[in-house]
Amino acid sequence: MRQRHFSVSLVVSPILSALYISITFSIAAKRNTQNFNDFHRLRSKSPLTVVTLNHVLNVAVLRFHTYLSAPVGLLSRLQRTLNKRVIMSPLISVTHFFELSKSSDNLIILDCRSDLSDRANAVKLYNEGHILNALHAHLEDDLSGPIITGKTSRHPLPSKENWQATLQRWGVEKSSTVVVYDQSNNMFSARAWWMLRWAGITNVLVLDGGLNAWLNAGHPISTLAPSPSPSSIQIELANWVITAEDIPSLQAQMLDARALPRYAGETEPLDGKAGHIPSAQNADFSKNLTSEGFFQPKEVLHQRFAQCRDDVICYCGSGVTACHNILAFDIAGLPMPKLYAGSWSEWITDPNRPIATGIEGEAL
What we know:
Helix content: 40-55%
Strand content: 5-15%
Number of domains: 3
Number of strands: 10
CATH superfamily of the largest domain: Rhodanese-like domain
Distance between the termini: 71 Å
Largest sheet: 5 strands, parallel
Radius of gyration: 23 Å
Low-confidence stretches: 1-72, 75-87
Order of helices and strands: HHHHEHEHEHEHEHEHEHEHEHEH
């Protein structure tokens, strides 16, 4: 009897514990997230808690499936709900990043700070100080391919082979967690985030508020450059890129991430011609941010982009801040738009491509 009692307790107690955790979490989730509708915000605030819970449920389902079908069925449904509803937020706060940096063995940190007017300044910024163990992700050298005058944009995407070689040099694996940051508005780290996701790296997080938020929280910086062990990662690129030749036939909704005066053709500080691609709406990327440089709450971003069609294409001056709008869609829980990577600086290389000025439609 004693042995049988021990065996039943061994089986039932973990199930009851898992059920208790599940029910308690469900009540809290319903109370705080309006029946999972706002679950995205909960897990963006506490991604480690959600991941831990999901792991507990997965283990419980696998371990006790043969013992008690009814409770395990409940656990399975809860686990499937979490797998479906709970996708890691693409943002990470300074607080959670600080904890992650102390506990993760497979963490890659990329400093993406850059200067569009002075490419050498990016190296200077990194050398003067960066988050400990951060590698330097140079916009022109690492996150862009070669420029072909009169044909490509100012920041063309690298080839698959070159991007794969860069990821191998950084030591990135498919299972790596990669945290990217820049100074404050994350316009450059958004490009790195998109490119990593494009290459099939799923655990990519953007440090909300960037280095400014890190420093304001009192955390130190380092001048030491890490030497990672190279990886042997092999990548396949997702079908997320639109070319200039695709645009006329697609008749898609196009969003221009540049500031309104550039979009309208009133000024053009970087490229040879002013204006925008005909029919595009203005969606200035800076509106994704608060005045302190943090991303707007999910609800605000959702309201901004919720009325967009399912065929959105994002572009900007050279394929950088367009990724910021794509990131905002993802934060909002909306389908990710495709990217016209060549953007305005490539569009204007062909004199036969039409140019519009003024404001079309409603600016987002």
